Each structure stands twice: as structure tokens, then as C-alpha cells.
Amino acid sequence: MNATDKQTAARKNPESGKKILVVDDESAILQTLRYNLERSGYTVCTAGDGRAAIGMAAREDPDLIVLDIMLPVLDGIEACKAIRKSSSVPIIMLTAKDQEIDKVLALELGADDYVTKPFSLHEFLARVKARLRRGQPQEREDVISAGGIVLDPSRQRLMVRDREVPLAPKEFALLQLLMENSGRVVTRQTLLDKVWGYDFEGEHQTVSVHIRWLREKIEVDSRNPRHIVTVRSRGYMFKE
Question: Which residue among 52, 76, 77, 97 is least crowded, i.e. fewest CB within 10 A of its CB?
Fold first, then answer.
């Protein structure tokens, strides 16, 4: 891409210049995605298996990872799990499977979104752009503290009973919304709209999965939650 093309891409896409790691073992898909992402102004690096993806994610520090589930050496689910141990980078999973369990598992292990093959390039690029936009740093916000849980939105930092706990971007946004509405019921639809966006096509089960994961990280006993409680047929409420 020449300088003129890069300037044109930047005008059309404010997120251009961001680095994206694309991981897929199918060369045709890998090259197609790389070509179209670079045309949109992104910097792209690639990997062909899960183990290489983990190393590339650590070395390149990408702004977003596109990760296929079915990979050689180490599959995408395990790679996602490993990356999440040290990074909160947004991850979009690619999967040829239609079973809901695969999508739920990917989200449970820290993915932020998924795209099912075959997909349109327009849809794929729109999801990439939306995920990068939501990951942009926000203006400094006040620290939220309640019941031994301290959330610092400006630093994307969570402290639970004096221990720092890493969160994926979706988990952080979900907890922030609940804590900002402490003592009030937040419906599942509101959580989907505000955390995943109005264009999200997933199921309410996505919220349940992330709530369960949050409970495992902040509750003393996740099976008997004190802070994030379910309000039957309505949604969830954060309590101190």
C-alpha cells in the first residue's frame, strides 16, 4: 500500500494503523483477510497454528487478534486461553462450527466476539472495526469501589480484596456497568446493548457465560455470589 492509499484508508477508517494478528491454517483465508485488512489501513501479522499465535501475540503486541478455532499444533480455544493469561487484547474467533457450545466456550475462555464461516468480508471488517473502536481508551473516569472491589476504568485495572485480577475487555465493561448501577437491576438486554453493542447477533446466554466468569474472579464463593446476584426473569444486580 502506497502513501496515498494509506491516507485514503485513514480518512475512511479512524482505526487504521492498528496492528491485527490473523491466525488461520488455511492459506487462502489467511491471505484474503490480510489483503482486505491492509486495504482498510491496518498493519497485519499472521500465524498458522495456535502455538505460533501465542508467541506472535507476545512479541507483536497486537491491538486485536483474529483467531481460528480449528488450528494445528494447538487449537484456537487453547491458544485463546493461553493468551488471556497475560493479555486483555480483543479477540475475534473464527469457527466453521455451528454448534452453540463452541461459541459459548470461546466466549467463556475470553474471546470478545466470533464470526462463523463462511462469512462476508463486509461483516468481518465491520466487526473488526467495531471491536477496535470499543477498545479505544476513554477519558479518565473515577475509580469505583464497593465491598473490597476496586475498579479503575482509566487504567483498566481491577483489585479484588487487595489482589489485582486481570479481566478481558468484555468482562471489564460488564463489571463496570453493573457497579455503576449498584443496587439497581440491569436487564440482560441492556447488558447486551451497552457491552456488546446493538449490532451483536448473539444470544442472552453470552451474558450468562460472562457473568459466571466474573463471579469466578471476584466472588469468595462463585456458587453463592454475594456481589453479582441474579434477579430472576429480569437481569442482574451488583451489591456491596
Answer: 97
